[in-house]
Amino acid sequence: MKSIYAPADIARITEATIGSLEQIATLAEPERSAMMMRRAVFVDGVGAAVADEVLAMRADSGAEVLIFAGDGICGAYALATAAALHAAGCMAKVTLFNIGGQLLTADTLDARARYIDACGTSCLVEVIDPGNGFTMPPMGRKTIVIDGIFGSEYGKPLRGGYQAVARYINEHNARVVAIDLPSGMTTDLSVGMINRNIIHAELTLTLVGPTLAFFMPENAELVGKWKTLPVGFNEEAMRDTVCTSHLVDSAAVRSALPKRSRVMSKADLGDALIFAGSYGMLGAAVLATRAATRSGCGKVTCHGPRCGLFVLQTSVPSAMFATDGSDFEIRHFDDERDADGVAVGPGIGRAEATASGLATYLKTCYSSDKPLVLDADALNIIAEHPSMLDFIPRRSVITPHAGEFDRLFGAQASQGTRTLLALEMAKRYKIVIVLKGAWTLTIWADGSVLVNSSGTEALATAGSGDVLTGLMAGLIAQKMAPEVAAVAAVYVHGIAGRIAARQCGIAGTTAEDVADAIGPAIDSILNRRPDNR
Q: DSSP for 88-121?
């Protein structure tokens, strides 16, 4: 899995690589000059890497390149990029913001001097007094703009003239490449941002690696696509950094998925139980049960109301059906066989008898320390009866989308604040929270955040969450730890969505298609076939 870094980690790794200007200023010669040379070599390396990306984007189009450089190290990166592009025959125009004439840091002063030595001043505009005749250069849809104004070092919203610069660039729909971080964006998940005042990038070239902010939907239009530049950081600092967040990939899931041997029988592959369905919502029960049967577990039982008998027996004949005798809703949650993996919620409704039965069942499982998968109406019932939160069994998995999460724990203004609260709630209740979205986050009680990389817009269809719930219960039934099964199920679910979309089209994919693609998805991961790309 790829590491996702906290902002403090990035700052520490960067300082271990090139030192800090404050510390360097206290050094005596020749050590001071040696450290500044080290920073200059690093800056030029970043510039060369950015230039390679821009040249690839520009290809043979001959598109004009405009570079905006700030007064700090991000501006130094931008000037080094300009010099590298000039050496490659691309005469990029550079706007260097040096408001008042005294703001450039030592890095930017050195980078400006190196740029002028190599390229002259014909393509350089240095803005000292913005009110004295400065106008933004013309740009259009084909123009490539390199944003090297602030990156992550500013850490607060743009103001004044810089805000006007961001709006101008955004309004002209140029192709923006941001160095480090789009100017004006912050990586603080708790801070609400006004996106029109932040530069919108088509491509963000991060240095050490991404932060969690890259995976928040409210930041999607800011970050665009992202890529980590191949620049050399201090290996010891990188090695010693223990990240609590990771981007899940196929290799990690491959190592976790259950493996079958030729001598296994269905008795060796676990028993899944799905509490699902009520009158008018039996489709959710069908989808969750079908997904469980596709997960690889040996036996699957759907427990639902009597009205679901013929529907389930004809729609999923490989599964068994159980009922407590109620005609239209589940009233008693019975698990006589002590199933290995249990999911509760898809389509069960919110009838008073169902809520009462769920409360009793949660207490039973809480006392026996039996983890559950809780989704859909199970979460809605708990939201209506908050005291039930205290009886969710330890290590259970809850799978809310944003609306369900907010009903459970309180309304949130953004996915960023929702993520911070989910970390707190997972720790408090000792549970796993699967926060569903474009980048689904699986949050463990120990503070780990696992970001899914397999998602697809084809999963934006009714019943998709029911499929995920059944799949998760099926994996847990095969003796996977709930924490790991949650991560693996989310990833497999995404690959299944991609496979289904190739057959049915993105817009035409239904939850039934996703459920039926689970088997090929697992097979493609285990056998390293290209279905997961």
A: TT---EEEEE-GGG----HHHHHHHHHHHHHH-S
For the domain spanning 250-254+343-526, the CATH number is 3.40.1190.20
DSSP string, 133-189: T--PPP--TT-EEEEES-TTSS-S---HHHHHHHHHHHHTT-EEEEESS-TT----T
Please give the model's pTM, rounded to 2 decimal places.
0.93
Dihedral-angle region of residue 46 (phi above 0 means left; psi in -120 to 50 means alpha; beta otherwise): alpha
Is the model's pLDDT at 155 over the cut of 80? no
Say if CB 496 and CB 531 are below 8 A apart.
no
The pair phi, psi for residue 275, each rounded to 5°, is -90, 110
Q: Tell the CATH topology of 2-243.
A: Rossmann fold (3.40.50)
Give domain limits for the chain: 2-243, 250-254+343-526
Distance (Å, rounded) from C-alpha 127 to C-alpha 95? 7
Look-up of token digits 């690839």: 56
- Pairwise CA distance, residues 85 & 179, whole Å: 15
Report the pLDDT averaged over residues 451-455.
97
Pairwise pLDDT comparison (129 vs 474), residue with the higher score? 474
pLDDT of residue 153: 82
Whole-number pLDDT of residue 533: 47
CA distance 285 to 329: 12
Question: What is the model's pLDDT at position 417?
Answer: 97
Helical pair 402-409 and 415-429, crossing angle rounded to 10 deg: 60
